[in-house]
Specification:
- The chain has 8 helices and 4 strands.
- It has 205 residues and is of the alpha+beta class.
- It folds into 2 domains: 70 residues, Glutaredoxin (3-Layer(aba) Sandwich), CATH 3.40.30; 114 residues, Glutathione S-transferase Yfyf (Class Pi), Chain A, domain 2.
- Strands 2-1-3-4 form a 4-stranded mixed beta sheet.
- Helix 4 runs antiparallel to helix 5.
- The N and C termini lie far apart (38 Å).
- The structure holds glutathione.
- Glutathione binds next to helix 3.
Length: 205
């Protein structure tokens, strides 16, 4: 008999939130194993030690966006529709998330939130200033893409919204500069109204 899919990684991580939210949305039963990066249990599944990592009855996988595509492929639904063009658009956002969006917000989050939380020193304002320039460029792109739309692809939430939206999990605490991006803020509120988002809101402190 097969066991529930294991997702390794602390739910506080925005990257871990992605598979937890997708599983919650699809009603896929999973076992969440809340361990940090480089824990031996993670390394056994994902040799580079990063979270999330997945083990589906011996099939192991790293990279949050690959994991959510795998989960969605197990249970066909509107969050990853069969249509080739829709899938390609979703995949394009998943690539943008990994290649541009995450590197844009992560330094701000690290400097303003993670560093103080882990006692790794003061926020380096020079790093934040440089990071904000990068962030503004990518946020402007996302905001423009959302103009006149409720969701990034098609008419309902998809993996694209979950992957890209996960990056804003700690936006308030890390003070991401979102004041000028009304479309992003409205879209993130829509995402926040989904049950899968409410169920996976990390509890800080
Ligand atoms: N591209 C990876 C990034 C995963 C990642 O960097 N996770 C962080 C926690 S949010 C981590 O494990 N960091 C430890 C490290 O990079 O060594 C993904 O999307 O899964």
């Amino acid at each position: 008999m097969s066991e529930p899919i294991k997702i390794y990684g602390a739910p506080l991580s925005q990257n871990v939130r992605k598979p937890l939210a997708v599983a919650a949305h699809l009603g896929i039963s999973i076992e969440s194993i809340p361990v940090g990066p480089h824990d031996p249990a993670v390394k056994a599944v994902n040799p580079c030690g990063r979270i999330p990592a997945m083990d589906d009855n011996g099939f192991t996988l790293g990279e949050s966006n690959a994991i959510i595509v795998y989960l969605a492929s197990k249970k066909p639904s509107d969050i990853y529709p069969e249509d080739a063009a829709r899938r390609a658009e979703i995949n394009s956002w998943l690539s943008w998330d990994a290649a541009h969006w995450t590197p844009a917000y992560q330094p701000i989050q690290f400097e303003r939130l993670i560093k103080p939380m882990l006692g790794r020193g003061e926020t380096d304002e020079a790093v934040v200033e440089t990071a904000i320039k990068v962030f503004e460029r990518e946020a402007a792109h996302l905001d423009a893409a959302l103009a006149g739309r409720e969701w990034l692809v098609g008419e309902g939430p998809t993996l694209a919204d979950i992957a890209v939206g996960a990056g804003l999990t700690h936006a308030v605490m890390a003070k991401f500069p979102l004041e000028d991006y009304a479309n992003i803020r409205a879209w993130y509120e829509r995402l926040g109204a989904l049950d899968c988002w409410k169920k996976t809101t990390p509890q800080l402190g």
